[in-house]
């Protein structure tokens, strides 16, 4: 059972659960999830592709943190996505893929 948009005990709402408005969004595929934000240091973000009223779209959002779990953007207390204009989608997806590879290589290097 959902306990409102923030779900008790969570630092933020994971991007795969950002499905508002329910009538307009489906088939969410998370491209990047930066995790919970830390308002004293930096805000983390997420990106995903999904069907947006029947069309493929890219969305980005700032993740929340404990006490402000919903993040931004939001509508009436429900987490939503900022829809990227079609002209920018390919460039942003390519940049996410490139940075994601860099971040993964960095994690592997730190673990060694």
Shape: flat
- CA-to-CA gap between the ends? 41 Å
Number of helices: 1
CA radius of gyration: 15 Å
Strand ordering within the main sheet: 1-2-3-6
Biggest beta sheet summary: 4 strands, antiparallel
Q: Give helix and strand order, one letter per element, not per position.
A: EEEEEEH
Average pLDDT, to the nearest integer?
85
Number of strands: 6
Helical fraction equals 10-25%
Number of domains: 1
Question: How would the blueprint of this fold be written?
Answer:
Elements: E1 25-33, E2 45-52, E3 55-62, E4 74-75, E5 78-79, E6 82-83, H1 86-111
Structure overview:
The structure is a single chain. By secondary structure, the protein is an alpha+beta fold. The chain has one domain (15-111). It contains one helix and six strands; from the N terminus they run ββββββα. The chain has one helix at 86-111; strands spanning 25-33, 45-52, 55-62, 74-75, 78-79, 82-83. The strands form two sheets. A four-stranded antiparallel sheet has the order 1-2-3-6. A two-stranded antiparallel ribbon has the order 4-5. The longest helix is centred in the C-terminal third of the chain and has 26 residues, at 86-111. The protein is flat, with a radius of gyration of 15 Å. The termini are far apart. Residues 1-8 have low confidence and may be disordered.
Descriptive key words:
112 residues; alpha+beta; two-stranded antiparallel sheet; 28% strand; disordered N terminus
């Amino acid at each position: 059972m959902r306990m409102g948009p923030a779900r008790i005990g969570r630092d933020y709402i994971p991007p795969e659960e950002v499905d508002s408005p329910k009538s307009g969004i489906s088939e969410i595929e998370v491209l990047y999830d930066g995790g919970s934000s830390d308002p004293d240091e930096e805000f983390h973000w997420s990106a995903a592709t999904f069907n947006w009223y029947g069309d493929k779209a890219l969305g980005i959002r700032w993740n929340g943190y404990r006490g402000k779990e919903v993040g931004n953007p939001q509508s009436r207390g429900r987490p939503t996505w900022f829809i990227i204009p079609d002209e920018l989608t390919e460039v942003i997806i390519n940049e996410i893929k490139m940075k994601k590879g860099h971040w993964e290589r960095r994690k592997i290097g730190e673990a060694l």
